[in-house]
Model the fold of this input.
Amino acid sequence: MFARLGLATNVPVLALVGGAAGVTEGIESVVENLLGHVVVPLLERLGAAVVYGGTDSGVMRAMGTTYAAAGAGFPLIGVAPAGKVCLTAAAGASVPLEPNHTHFFTVPGREWGDESPWLFAVAAAIADRAATLTLVLNGGDVTVIDVEHSLSRRIPVLVVAGTGRTADRIAADSPDSRVRAIAASPITHVVDAGNHASVRERLSTLLHGAVGRTGA
Done:
């Protein structure tokens, strides 16, 4: 399937998860700055692929706009539940798709979060023997589900504190038991959004690393 779509495999993959409608204007600016100055240039240099939610909102929109502004050429692959999006605007999709993605997969499901296992299955299949990393920017309840799927596959998680909501809850001493379990994982890493050098170094290290993963 990937060959028919012109998608190379055995390349580093970044699974981007985070906030959609709940991203405030101030946080969106922080996210766009980080993506534009650190994440997108690094991914382009590494020849990596990105797998993300693919809808035109929040972190996904920021990724698409910074990708387009940079003239990047790496694959930008959306994965979303078929019951929530549609491939044509005329069909009356409940949520529009981010227009800069290069590929898109609709997967079984009618609710947000139904796509989570599929997103990481796609990421792991494209990476094959290369490294896979989950990057967390902002996020709501579905982001917690996403990160739990990432950890269940032994895919490391890089949480960017200072981007709000779920990312900041993981970085802090949250009373939520699920969030605390994510923070306690030995493959969960936290960096600060204001320290671009640190974010760049950790991203580069984790995307170059050999990552063991479980089966589907």
Notes: Helices lie at 25-46, 58-70, 116-127, 141-152, 165-171, 177-184, 196-208.
